[in-house]
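debug: dumping io for the single-chain case to check the tokenizer round-trip. Nothing else runs in this session.
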Amino acid sequence: MNNEVFYNISKIIERDSKTTTYKFALLRGVIDIIQDNSPYISFAENRVHFPTGLLIEKWFLYYYPILESQTTIPQINGETNLAFGKSFVDIISAYKEIGGFSVFYNDLRNKGIPKNLQNDFFELAKKLRDTITRMPMKYIGRSISNDYYSIFNFESGVLRKGSSDIDIQFLIQNFGTFSIPKEYYEAFKILGSFINGQDSLLFKWAEFSVNASKQNLSISKVVNEVLKSPITEREIKESKRIYKEILKREGQVYCVWTGKKIASYDIDHLIPFSIWKNNDLWNLLPSDSKTNNQKRDKIPSPELIEKQKSLIVDYWGILNESQTQRFKKEIQIALLGNNSFASWQETGIKQLQSSCEYLISNRGYEEWKI
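debug: decoded output
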């Protein structure tokens, strides 16, 4: 197993399509099956094989509480619904009368689905299988390869509903298998628990706090507070206001990415705020609105920064003259480190390129070029 596999996993998580939660559910499910050390896992040549039924079971567990929740928790962008949403809600409604989620899971694992619900359950299981195999399995890996099914392979089983018992064993025996490269299996085996969250530092931190509170707090409450950023929308607007006032005095404004003179513009976070919670003035640059919308949460390539560095440095110089104390302090901490401020232009650009290269190559964020 080489480092490329870890980089690829990072890229998949960050770059692959995010129009639905299917990708996250697929990766989470595979990792959970591996972490369960399922006896159904088998090895052949350089691939590791799993019953698709185990993955369908995981999706039942993941989406049941989400679709049952009184709070709407969006799982897909736009006005469309989950491919299996209506069928799943029908099953949830039926189980609401006989004990809910826990009873459903006990039936799935032990007792078997009641006769009067078997047809609906079977159709829902097929929809889950089709969604899993035709959507995330097909497209995962497109950020690192132009091929479909570049990581996941699916082998359809012979689907029969002749059994009197429809349960987890029925899913395992009748819904085919899928496989992944062995090196991905090994990576998920090592890092899976940290990716999925049960053993992640944030989860362990929250779990400790809940126990220390004698269960007076919830995991979700603690995680929400731990992840809270000190920089609010108000601070972001204030920094942008300062920048716009400076540019207004300058008279002419040029898009930092295209070099074109612009009458109206956005103040763009060079390294997106969603990725790097940095509201420093040096990280704020004027950009044409259309160009800024194209960039969104992508990371500028080191080559693009090199191409536009004279304009970037010009804007930094304007900030240095107008907001000297703040600019010096912010750029020293974020980009210069122990280097002298005397060489701030050259050092700042090099460190900026280094940071962007790290986010693209190591963290897997999408590169942006013009």
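debug: round-trip ok. Residues 3-219 form one domain.
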